[in-house]
Amino acid sequence: MKKCRCGRSGCVCILVMKREYGMEKNLKREKEHTTEYVLQKAVCFRAGEFSKEEKYIVPEEKYDLYLNGEMIHTFFCSPWYLEDLAYGFLYLEGYILKSEQIKEICVKQQEHRIEVVADKECDMHRQDVEETRKKAEERKISPKEIMSLAAALDERSHRFRLTGGVHSAALAKDGEILLMREDVGRHNAVEKLLGACVREQIDTADKTIVFSGRVAAEILEKAAAIGAPTLIAVSAPTSRAVELAEEKGILLVGFARGESFNVYTFPERVTIRATA
Amino acid sequence: MKKCRCGRSGCVCILVMKREYGMEKNLKREKEHTTEYVLQKAVCFRAGEFSKEEKYIVPEEKYDLYLNGEMIHTFFCSPWYLEDLAYGFLYLEGYILKSEQIKEICVKQQEHRIEVVADKECDMHRQDVEETRKKAEERKISPKEIMSLAAALDERSHRFRLTGGVHSAALAKDGEILLMREDVGRHNAVEKLLGACVREQIDTADKTIVFSGRVAAEILEKAAAIGAPTLIAVSAPTSRAVELAEEKGILLVGFARGESFNVYTFPERVTIRATA
């Protein structure tokens, strides 16, 4: 285990300790003072009357990402799972290929900084997620599983119900959600999920991504980088996202709401018996 | 009037001719072959049954922006009003301060390029939108106007109804929508509206922005750059957007749906009589 070197007050140190305690347990965390919601005074108009109320709104904060002392990016994000956001960004942008390269990660809330110490000269090769996905293309998913995953995402979206301002991205298997990440930005939500997958070295070939938002090309690209062969979205896809899903072998489902959904690519991978 | 110099097939030339024919008429346009919708084959699951259908989905395309021959940005956007997107981006990023600096703009659809020739050495000063806005702070808006603008945005959102994948940003005055811009990306929609305001040199001090999406900090920043003192959103704001609206003197309304809305900043600028 490594100790964070900053030693300042207001620092939430995340000490990287690899693969010793299994998934979601291999990071020891000190108490996180994350802002779950902001209570905002508002004047609400309903049924012709004004009233003063306190409303829950989603926190959005500016965080600068430092890699080995150099500022490389600014996020406008919700202050949850910032370490995953950093992992996701660094992986997507090609700074790291594997979680082992990150030696230390420190979220300094008072200074709004995420500081990462990483070994960029790592000689490992990027895991070929497309290869992994290809192996999984024979995997089928049932209408029942698609509908139950969309319902499970909705059920777990407490933050959305309170604030109306959050997007959710989840990783699921066999109809169950394993991991979920949320953010005010839908791109950040997917990047956090990607970061969690990279950090935890999760085998995604038999997993499904469930996403609350619209699927534009950049969302599809990030979902493809996670490596899961199936993406179920509550909202609409764009034309370019459908093309990319076709190219990358991803089964893309949109408008998964209640008892219905649309399959845009590889419908042969959805089992035909509705009750299956 | 200037002629576009490219002379290629597939080029949609937009010839800039300033302030001669008034708002929305000062650009002569050749026929635009923009893609309104993409018809996508999908397998739809409803009431326990599969059916093959064609669904309208929103076009998303990659366009590179060239300024005086140099590639400076890539948009993932819907191919409508790309000239406004360019104006909005160039203004926000500080490349131009006034529309007069743009001498020529050419959207090459086959090559997916937007080419701009602009005079960057212009000695004009940025119009102080905050000053303009301050003068307008005494202006009141009635609950009736807020509700009718939200309804008008919804009514005009044909593309959203067909595809479920579009965001809309509109400029309004006295309960009427004057201009509306749409895009698969909510940031692009606001940037297109900003671009239209810059291009047309619209006095925005007495106008209102109406927006379909969530208001994060970056959306608020762009809305502030438009210069209108009021922003009505159908969806939620974030904590940082509320702070910025407070700083910039913008009356921020959220969750404007049906007969209700929430006022997050400057409620004294909403008239108290519900029927006013």
What is the percent of helical residues of chain A?
Answer: 25-40%
What spatial form of chain A do the alpha-carbon principal axes imply? flat
CATH architecture of the largest domain in chain A: 3-Layer(aba) Sandwich
Oligomer: homodimer
**How do the helices and strands follow one another from N- to C-terminus of chain A?**
EEEEEEHEEHHHEEHEHEHEE
Q: Can you offer a commentary on this structure?
A:
2 copies of one chain form a homodimer. Helix content of chain A is 26%, strand content 32%. Chain A starts with 10 loop residues before the first strand and ends in a 13-residue tail after the last strand. The first copy, chain A, has helices at residues 82-92, 129-135, 143-156, 158-163, 186-200, 217-226, 239-248, and strands spanning 11-16, 27-29, 38-46, 49-57, 61-67, 70-77, 102-108, 113-118, 167-173, 176-183, 208-211, 230-233, 251-257, 260-263. Chain A is flat, with a radius of gyration of 20 Å. Chain A is α+β, with helices and mostly antiparallel strands. In chain A, the strands form 3 sheets. A 6-stranded mixed β-sheet of chain A has the order 2-1-7-8-5-6, covered by helices on one side. In chain A, strands 10-9-11-12-13-14 form a 6-stranded mixed β-sheet. The longest helix of chain A has 15 residues, at 186-200. Chain A folds into 2 domains: 11-118, Ubiquitin-like (UB roll), CATH 3.10.20; 129-269, Cytidine Deaminase, domain 2. In chain A, strand 13 and strand 14 form a beta hairpin. In chain A, helix 1 (82-92) packs across helix 5 and helix 5 runs parallel beside helix 6. Chain A contains 7 helices and 14 strands. Strand 3 of chain A pairs antiparallel with strand 14 (260-263) of chain B.
